[in-house]
Amino acid sequence: MHKIVGLDIGSYAIKAVELNLTKAGFELSQFHVIPSPISALESDISELTALSESLSQLFTTNKLATTVVTTIPDKILFSYVLELPRMTEKELSKSLEFELAQYIPMPLSEVSVAHQILDISDSTKPDTMEVSVVAVPKTVVSKYIKLIENSSLAVTAVENQITSALRCLTDPQIQLPTTMFLCLGASGTDFSIVHQSSVRFTRSITIGGHVMTRAVAEKIGFEEALAEEYKRTYGLLPLPQEGKVRVALVPPTEALITEVRRAQTFYNTRYAPDSIKRIMLFGGGASMPGLVEYLATSLEMEVEVGHLSGSLTFSKEMLDREAQFKSLMPILSVSLGLAMRPM
Ligand SMILES: Nc1ncnc2c1ncn2[C@@H]1O[C@H](COP(=O)(O)OP(=O)(O)OP(=O)(O)O)[C@@H](O)[C@H]1O
Ligand SMILES: [Mg+2]
After folding, report:
1. Whose alpha carbon is nearest atom 21 of ligand 1?
2. For residue range 32-88, what is the model confidence (pLDDT) as tens digits?
3. Among the residues of the chain, which ranges form H helices?
4. What is the Cα–Cα distance from 78 to 132, expressed in whole angstroms?
5. From CA 319, how far away is CA 338, in angstroms rounded?
6. What DSSP element (H or E) covers 79?
7. How much is the average pLDDT of 317-342?
8. For the domain with range 202-304, which CATH number is right: 3.30.420.40, 3.40.228.10, 3.60.15.10, 3.40.250.10?
9. Which ligand 1 atom lies nearest to the CA of residue 15?
10. Residues of the chain with CATH 3.30.420.40
11. Pocket test for ligand 1, best of 41, 74, 331 (most atoms within 8 A of CB)
12. What confidence category does residue 198 fall into, taking pLDDT thresholds of 50, 70 and 90?
């Protein structure tokens, strides 16, 4: 039986999901969420050593498979949807070189680039084409891989987070209405607007779980650990006696909503108006009490928390943890999707 681990190294938590790849499909054999020893992957080497140690310990103690698929945070990717005149694939390669030189603040020889032509049959500008481009500095990729391989792991692939999350939050058999995905991590929130399984818009902002916790800590005068607990317990719930937590969380949530509206306006002018039908949340912050209701009321849109879609079976050892796994789906969707990546 072949085993693979999806590894999502966040600034708050490290997530690892191990799957058995059986003839019948994916079987969950382990999952782990452990605190992350880093504040940002771009920090100094001492913290990177701590990360290598955490990884080694996590994998050795649990006898996790050492073949891993991992991800690079959206915030360090350059990701664009370019609007270009219609042209052939050959002309496009030339044109992209020219276009990207204007967008990417480093020599093109130092970045790895992938592109995809998007289907834009609903565009307001029929004589143009749209190309989604993702670029990442080669040094960053090699640093990531080296870091992980220091812990005696073999990295078979690196991919961006929304691609992996889509694999387990959506069902390819079902046509998805145009959806704005919000990945609410600790260091920020990543926006992706997905139309018929292609990602048409991405953006990262620094309002995330950490900012939310700080807001509670400052407003109420709590230590961060206590603020974190209150945030998770009361969140945006309009309770009379705990209203303070909500009051503290409203400003960062409103700032997030402003960004959602901005993305929506941008999208609506480029494609059919009112085409974004719903918002799907994932990442740790998706579980904040009251958030779904707050966003739905404010934005007058359908808002839901991502849940497991598609088929996954549970190994004998995992059977009694099925409910727990499903409740952690928002946090685990990137790591699960990574493990499901086709070889
Ligand atoms: N029940 C909850 N209610 C509110 N916030 C929560 C809850 N559970 C987790 N969080 C928040 O989610 C964040 C962690 O989520 P996640 O593991 O997705 O982040 P990360 O991947 O480590 O961060 P990043 O990707 O930004 O580096 C923390 O800020 C935490 O406070
Ligand atoms: Mg994350």
Report:
1. 10
2. 999 998 764 455 555 678 888 999 999 999 999 999 999 987 777 888 888 899 998
3. 45-61, 89-103, 138-149, 161-169, 209-220, 224-233, 243-270, 291-299, 322-327, 329-339
4. 11
5. 22
6. strand 78-85
7. 96
8. 3.30.420.40
9. 17
10. 2-75+138-170+307-339, 202-304
11. 331
12. confident
Say how many C-beta atoms besides its own lie within 10 A of residue 2's C-beta: 10
To test the ligand 1 pocket, which listed residue (9, 12, 15, 211) has its Cβ within 8 A of the most ligand atoms? 12
Centre of ligand 2 from the C-alpha of residue 46, in Å: 21
| CATH code for the part of the protein at 2-75+138-170+307-339 | 3.30.420.40
* Ligand 2 is an ion; residues with CB less than 5 A from it: 10, 185
Cα separation, 61 vs 39, in Å, equals 24
